[in-house]
Design goal:
single chain, alpha/beta, 5-stranded mixed beta sheet, 4-stranded mixed beta sheet, Bact_solute-bd_prot1
């Protein structure tokens, strides 16, 4: 496996004037033996037995809260220091020095002064902070916010954690050692381990369907089945359509690779872009059939994506695709509004009815960094606190950091923790969870059947998951190629919605090649030659 961090065509270490012993080449990439020197060992914990075990990296499912809870951190990790911590927050900012923060600070033996910022405008805030000299002790940066010069700043302004966590050194922090290798691999920036990762599930998108509307009949298991499903359940006069926009998951059914930097595959030793493959054309042709049959809701055809959930829950659409992270929220919301509501995820299949080829999502999505100005002692102290934050479900530490103080922030009835109004204000919009996170789990004591459904679905998909060519590699394309792929966003919509033909892809690909596609291929080939693949 290999990791590489490149921005704008200029390797990060070179861009920042560094070299570093962790670099596998003068370009500041990390390869082979060098990678093993910076990535922590993986030592899985088995503190609590799940009701639905994980399979091939799938998230385990928990239907109840263990009683008693397990203790994963045996002593207070902090040494009384204070840390200024900047994180995003999607919700109302809690009051400072509230009982939740007081309890967490007491438990970790340090003072974490959180400075949560609006997640919706976090991009601008990150840029402003990193451009100045007043860097917080600890700072969370989501992957989707790593735009412009932010990756350069990560390498220049944040600490190298390799000396503290690489290899067996991480065993000092058992909960951090429980984080899968891929997530750590993706936390390598500029040849050094710099981030504390928030791991993500191995697969994060699904086609959902309304089982309460379809009954106990067979569900689609091929592209032809989907067409038949479309014909059966579309009834415009009743304002019901079989499908919303399924393009994201149609690509999975046809085995298509994700987008940048994962849209390359090797064929006969040559890099081939997804838009160059026959599968891409077949996927478009199939999506066009759904349109031509009139099976897709008109509002979905009109790009009114924001209303997709409403179309689904209201029964105007029987099947739609979405991120699995929203599954629980929809089921919980509908529990009282529509008790019969039954939302299930379709098992993926290859379009011909065979076994699917699914590509693993990025192994982490959000990262927390420590200022390089912190002393060795304070870095070690904070890593011990991060170990507390990374405690898995079923532990006392997890309950405190995620739910707060029992009786104040939550109550337990029939084994289910429920936030109090104070908990909703102080503990639910948690900022502490960004410090470090355990591997993903599906723990829904309040929705035990959903925990079984979700974890069971992921366990069935996991054996079909493969790692794309540049998996776990921090690759950012040179800015000169930034708009190369953009025309295909409009083209695929035009083809799927009857405005253009599948054959129009040929001219678009030729234009892409001449406009820089072939040069971009060479750029990726150079990375591959020097660093190997990430799969």
């Amino acid at each position: 496996m290999a990791a590489v961090a490149v921005v704008g065509g200029v390797p990060l270490l070179a861009a920042c004037g560094g070299s570093g012993s962790g670099a596998g080449s003068k370009e500041g990439t990390t390869t082979g033996k060098a990678l093993k020197k910076v990535v922590p060992s993986y030592v899985p914990l088995n503190l609590v037995q799940p009701d639905v075990p994980g399979v091939n990296g799938s998230s385990p499912g928990f239907t109840k809260l263990p009683d008693p809870l397990v203790v994963s951190v045996k002593s207070v990790p902090g040494k009384g220091s204070a840390f200024r911590v900047m994180t995003p927050l999607w919700g109302t900012v809690p009051k400072k020095n509230n009982p939740y923060y007081t309890a967490v600070n007491k438990a970790v033996g340090a003072t974490l002064n959180f400075d949560p910022q609006d997640g919706n405008t976090y991009q601008d805030k990150i840029g402003a902070v990193l451009a100045g000299s007043d860097i917080p002790d600890v700072m969370t940066i989501p992957g989707w916010n790593m735009q412009g010069q932010i990756r350069n700043a990560i390498t220049a302004k944040f600490a190298d954690l390799s000396p503290y966590l690489a290899g067996d050194a991480v065993k000092k922090y058992p909960n951090l050692a429980n984080i899968p290798t891929g997530a750590w691999q993706y936390s390598v920036f500029g040849g050094k381990l710099r981030g504390l990762p928030m791991p993500t599930p191995v697969i994060g998108n699904a086609i959902f369907y309304r089982k309460d509307l379809t009954g106990s009949g067979a569900v689609p298991a091929s592209a032809d089945d989907l067409l038949a499903f479309g014909k059966e359940y579309t009834a415009p006069k009743k304002k019901v359509w079989a499908f919303d926009d399924l393009w994201t998951c149609i690509q999975k059914i046809y085995g298509l690779l994700p987008d940048a930097p994962h849209y390359w595959q090797l064929e006969n030793g040559k890099l081939v872009h997804k838009i160059e493959t026959q599968a891409y054309r077949e996927a478009l042709a199939f999506a066009r059939k759904l349109h031509d049959g009139g099976y897709v809701h008109p509002d979905a055809e009109a790009n009114k994506d924001a209303d997709a959930k409403i179309r689904f829950t209201s029964g105007h659409v029987v099947m739609y695709n979405d991120g699995t992270g929203g599954w629980k929220g929809m089921v919980t919301e509908q529990a009282s509004a529509n008790p019969k509501f039954d939302m299930q995820a379709l098992d993926f299949f290859h379009h011909d009815g065979g076994e699917p080829v699914l590509w693993q999502d990025d192994p982490a999505g959000i990262f927390t960094f420590l200022s390089k100005n912190l002393s060795k002692e304070k870095i070690e102290e904070f890593l011990a606190i991060a170990d507390y934050a990374a405690a898995p479900f079923g532990t006392e530490e997890f309950m405190l950091t995620n739910y707060g103080v029992k009786g104040t922030h939550y109550t337990i009835k029939d084994g289910t923790p429920t936030y109090t109004p104070q908990g909703v204000e102080e503990a639910q919009p948690s900022t502490f969870l960004f410090v470090a996170s355990p591997p993903t789990s599906i723990a829904y004591p309040d929705q035990p059947q959903l925990a079984k459904d979700y974890a069971g679905w992921m366990a069935r998909q996991a054996p079909h998951i493969k790692k794309p060519l540049f998996f776990g590699m921090q690759v950012v394309e040179p800015q000169r190629y930034a708009s190369l792929y953009t025309p295909f966003d409009d083209l695929q919509k035009d083809i799927r919605r009857g405005r253009k033909k599948v054959a129009d892809v040929e001219d678009a690909v030729n234009t892409w090649k001449k406009s820089g596609g072939d040069k971009l291929r060479d750029w990726y080939q150079d990375i591959l030659d020097k660093n190997g693949s990430g799969n």
